[in-house]
From TrEMBL:
Keyword line: Polyamine biosynthesis, Transferase
Gene3D superfamilies hit by this protein: Spermidine synthase, tetramerisation domain, Vaccinia Virus protein VP39
Record family assignment: Belongs to the spermidine/spermine synthase family.
Name this polypeptide is given: Spermidine synthase
Higher taxonomy: Eukaryota, Sar, Stramenopiles, Ochrophyta, Bacillariophyta
PROSITE patterns attached to this UniProt entry: PABS_1, PABS_2
Pfam families reported in the protein's UniProt record: Spermine_synt_N, Spermine_synth
Signal peptide: none
GO CC annotation, single: cytosol
Database matches in SUPFAM superfamilies: S-adenosyl-L-methionine-dependent methyltransferases (SSF53335)
One MF annotation (Gene Ontology) recorded for this entry: spermidine synthase activity
Length: 306
């Protein structure tokens, strides 16, 4: 996940020191300690550091872990591991795509590792796939160290735009059937991706009947972020729903997905299903999982929608 855009002005007093991912490796273990989940951490044993450089936007680390394969870390936060990435990539892509009866043009914002592209490319009816990733280094690093995800770039329907996703949408009004935002957590520059204006930009860039699907954070950790966002966009979108997927390497082992529609109804039931060959290739998504992912624990349902 990556799309640090619309960078806000910083002051010397408020700007923390840049994160150095290598500093989070202690005694051969990488320790993820995020400011959004104080009091808990996730650790992986490191076999080898494969890459660690600071790009124009963020600190990028790739390491080979003992049990999760290669791991991509941005500013100290795990984005992708080879072991469990499919649980996220499949669900953020296929929930909106299979909810849509006939998607032709798809926009991916962020997602520089290529995993979302890989899943979108499984839909033969999609004619154009655009991706806006502002950090070109994430793309190049992923192609080298995460080829199983980055193979999504090989599809001839894919066009890569190294630029701000919001500005791209301003130039492409009512253009896309599905918009997928694969973002990092709402810290620093990424916080704009969890605010109402960004969702308004996506709405304007959708065609009638279109669907947006965005990384929606964890119900165990960030209900105070999820609920205000859902409330703020309900007046504009025809429907706003929350689904989730289980992924061990993300905080609390769960990540949410916000699905919102333009001039159409719910996404809870798939309008199409994977053919037999595609379903055999998928490791997490199915038509049954599609519907089940919208069934929230009672506390989350009440907190978000009541």
């Amino acid at each position: 996940m990556s799309e640090p855009e619309n960078k806000k002005p910083k002051t010397e007093e408020s700007d923390p020191a840049p994160i150095k991912c290598a500093d989070l490796i202690v005694d051969g273990w990488f320790h993820e300690r995020g400011t959004l989940w104080p009091g808990q951490a996730f650790s992986l044993k490191v076999e080898e550091i494969l890459y660690n450089q600071r790009s124009e936007y963020q600190d990028i680390l790739v390491f080979k872990s003992e049990s999760f394969g290669n791991v991509l870390v941005l500013d100290g936060i795990i984005q992708v591991t080879e072991r469990d990435e499919f649980a996220y990539q499949e669900m953020i892509a296929h929930l909106p795509l299979y909810a849509h009866a006939d998607p032709k043009k798809v926009l991916v914002i962020g997602g520089g590792d290529g995993g979302v592209l890989r899943e979108v490319a499984r839909h033969p009816g999609v004619e154009e796939i655009s991706i806006c990733e502002i950090d070109k280094d994430v793309i190049e690093v992923s192609k080298k160290y995460l080829p199983g995800l980055a193979k999504g770039y090989d599809d001839p329907r894919v066009t890569v735009h190294i630029r701000d996703g919001s500005k791209f949408m301003e130039e492409n009004q009512e253009s896309f059937d599905v918009i997928i935002t694969d973002s990092s957590d709402p810290i620093g520059p990424n916080s704009v991706l969890f605010e109402t204006p960004f969702y308004s930009s996506m709405y304007s860039s959708l065609r009638k009947g279109g669907i947006v699907c965005t990384q929606g954070e964890c119900v165990w950790l960030l209900l105070d972020v999820i609920k205000p966002l859902v409330n703020s966009i309900k007046e504009k979108y025809s429907s706003v729903e929350f689904a989730y997927t289980c992924i061990p390497s993300y905080p609390s082992g769960q990540i949410g997905l916000i699905l919102a529609t333009k001039d159409r109804g719910s996404c809870k039931t798939a309008a199409r299903k994977p053919d037999e060959e595609t379903q055999k290739a998928l490791q997490y998504y199915s038509a049954d999982m599609h519907s089940a992912s919208f069934v929230l624990p009672a506390f989350a349902q009440r907190a978000i929608f009541e």
